[in-house]
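Batch manifest, entry 17 of 40.
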Amino acid sequence: MEENLMFTIAKDTRIKPYDGESQGEYLGRLVYSSMGQWLKVITLDTGNLDGAMRTKNKSYVLSRGTEILNNMILAMPECREWFWNSYNESKRKEEHPVRILRERMLNAGELIETDLKTNIGTPREYKKPFIENYERILGLGSSINSNELYIGVTRIKKSSTAQREETAIINSCKIFNWVKRAAKWETINDLFKYEFFQSLSKSAPYKSWINIFPNVGAKNIVLGRVKLYNDLYEYYLFKMEENQIYIYKLSTVLNEFKEERRIILALRKISGNVMKAKAELKKEVVILKLFCRLPLVEERIFETYCWPKKCINDKINYVIPIQLWNHFKMILEELQIEIKE
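Output type: structure tokens
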């Protein structure tokens, strides 16, 4: 049963194991991309009809998706840990694997919200340029196309066009300079409640915060934060001029999109302490190991076109299709992450 199902899914999705990949991680990737298709099919279950589009409540998609996932895991038990390793219903409901996948597909446009009542649907199949010689296929087709490659939560296929997706690759230092120029500074004297990022620290960013304002030059900017609750923080920029410290609170939008991560990468680059990453090239994929989380804009791009490596909620290890590596390498370089291949 396991071998038959695995063979069928692998044939339909054209997802192959890479050299050295464990059975659990390979089956995790295989079921992950397959479940992406299943969540789209679930929205077409008999029920609400929104014009030409059937829709389903998010809760329905979660329930039916969980049923299908558990049945697939029964057939391929080696991937159970890949999906359920971090889930704790009483403490971390947001880490339910089907909820994670559903939200990634919404972010990627593979599922769409159709109203304010938490109903979601699947767009009609359409193609859009992605990178040179490849186009992306969104929605749900009427049949399996042998020319399509299943990657992450979406599909791509070769095309003859040189047109690229109209999405700018963002340079961290340029964005940081823009934030500095737009800042409205205010004086501050009491720094008791703040933590400060050490841009010269060799540790991972989450280990690089101190309670003492760092000794910096007059033109240097310091990133600070205040803990709110759980793991949420507000972020601030600080600078010192003529022995007076000034503060600027980062906007809510920057906080929501985790742009402090971009500022951290820019500060490390400016300080001569650039963030590193490791890339291992295989025949059909690249194994990427990061040492920090990415800003949400880039993290969602990775979650659309790549597979998490060790488990569904792995956000620092990715399996990247070899066809897309140059594109993702460019994204990382503009983020100011130095790649060691």
